[in-house]
Amino acid sequence: MRPASDARERERHRLEIRAWEANALKTYIAYQIIYWRTFRIHDLPMEILSNIIRFIVWSAPSPPIGIRWRLELTWVSKYLRHAAISDSTLWNAIWFRDDPPFERSLAFVERSGISPLDLRINDTETRKFTDEEVCALLKALTPHLHHVRMLIILLDNWEPILSVLEWLSDYGKNGDPPLSMERFEIHRTGNPYIWPGLVFKGERFDPVDHDVSVYSLFGGKHIPELKSFTMNGVYIDWANSPSLENLNTLDLRRIPLELCPPLPRFREILSTSPMLTKLSLDGAGPSGNPMANNINYTAIDLPHLHTLVLANFAAPFTRSIVSYFTAPNVKDLTIMNFRGEDYGLFYEFMIGRFRKIKLLTLYTTNCPPAILPTVIKWLDSMPLLTYARLASLEYDILQAFLFDPGTMKEVLSDTDRKPCLLSPRLNVIEVQNMRPEIFAKFIGARKICGIPVKKTYMAKGMVRTFNETLLQYIRQHIESLMIVDIGGKTKEEEELLNEP
C-alpha cells in the first residue's frame, strides 16, 4: 500500500507547487499593475523627478505625441503638474499645431519662462493661416522674441510672410533686448511663380494691405549668434540687411535670379563663414550674368563643407556656381532636376573636384549619350561612393554605373578581359519614384558584374508598383530589401557622415 501513498503524496506536492506558482504569478501581475501607485514617486527629490519627466518628454517618437505627453503629465497629480510646469525646458520647443488664436501653444510659451525658445509655425494643406491670424500671433510673441533660439516659418500666402519679415525688421530696428537667434528659416510654400509686383498668367500680383514688399533682414541689425540661415521662395533687401557671417548652414531656394544676393554679397557670406558645413542652392544663388560672374574672382576655400545641394539650375549657371568655392571634404552631394539641357560642361568641371564623396543623391537627372563618357569620368573621380539616393531616373544615367572607366565599355558586353566596374564600394541604395523594370535591370546588372548592391531602402509607394515577379527578382539580387517611409536618415547615412 505504500507505493500508492507515495504517489498521492507526490501528486499533492505537485499541486501545491502549481498553486504556489499561480499565486506568485498573480502577485507579480498585481504588483506590476499597482507598482506606480505604491511607488513613492512624490518622495523623490524635485531634481530627480525633473530628469525622469524630461526623459519621458524628449523620448516621444513624433512632435504631436510629444505635445500630448507633456499635457498628460500635468493631469496625473498636483505634484507632477507642479514639477512639469516648473521646468521651463519642457515647454520651450513649440510647434504651433493648434488653431488660432493658438491658446495651447502660447500657454507653452508662457511656461517656458526665459529659456531659449525653439518655434515652428506652419499652416497645412487644409488650413491656411490668414494675415490677421498671423499678425495676432506675432504680437503675442513679441515680448519673447529676444530669447527665441530657433524660428522656422512655413506659410503659403505672401501676406503673412510679409508680416513676419516686417515684424522681424521692426524689432531689429527698435527692439530691446537684442535678438539672439541661432537658426532662422522662412519658407513660402505657395506658388513659386507668384511674386509681388510681377505679372503671372496675365495678372499683376499685389499683396493685400502691404504697400511694402521688401524688408531688410532683422532691420539691418547683425546677430552674431546666427549660425543657420534658410530662405525659400522669399526675398529681402540684401543691400540693407546685416552681414551673414560665421554660418554653418546656408540654404537658398526658389528665388528669381534678379532677387538673389549680388555676387559680391554672396561671396562675402561664403568667405566670412569658414566653418560652413552645409550649402544648399536650389534655384537660387548669386544674381548677375552667370557667364561673367566668375571672371577675376578667386575660389573661396570651404574646408569644413560636408553637404552640398545643387538643384534646379539652367545649364550655363551650374558650372559658374561651383567655381566660386573649393570644398575638398564634401561627403554628401545632391544633384536635382538637371535635365532637358546639355550639362556636359558642368559634369566635366566636376571631375576630380569632390573626391571624398560617400553619399550621392540623383533626382530627376538624365544622361544623354553625348555626355555619357563625361558622366562616367565624373563618377569615377569619386572612388569612396558608398551610398546612393535615386529618384525619378531613367536607365540612361543608371547605365553609367555599369561601365569600366578604363575602357569606356559597358561591363556586361566586355568579354575580352576581366573588367573594372565603376563605384566598387557602392552597396547601399535608397530609391523612390522609379519604374520597376528600370530599377530591376540595374540591380541585376550590378550583381552580374560582380559587385552587387547589398542593401536597398525602397519607398512604400514604389513597392506597390512592382508585380510579384519583379519584386522576387529584386529580392534575389540584393541581400536586404527594406520597405520604408523615405525622409529620415538611415543608419548607414549617419555612419558615413560621421566617419572622419
Automatic annotation (TrEMBL):
Top-level lineage group: Eukaryota
Cross-referenced SUPFAM superfamilies: RNI-like
Annotated protein name in UniProt: F-box domain-containing protein
